[in-house]
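ingest -> validate -> predict -> emit
validate: passed (alphabet ok, no gaps, 33 aa)
predict: started
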Amino acid sequence: MVMALKEETMATTKALNTRIEELEGEVALCRVP
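emit:
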């Protein structure tokens, strides 16, 4: 139970980090004149 919850949390965190990196990339592109 605890292990499954931990793995799910790690997967969610990884997905969020990936999404944040994508958004930061888009913002960086928008800043380029």
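Helices lie at 2-31.
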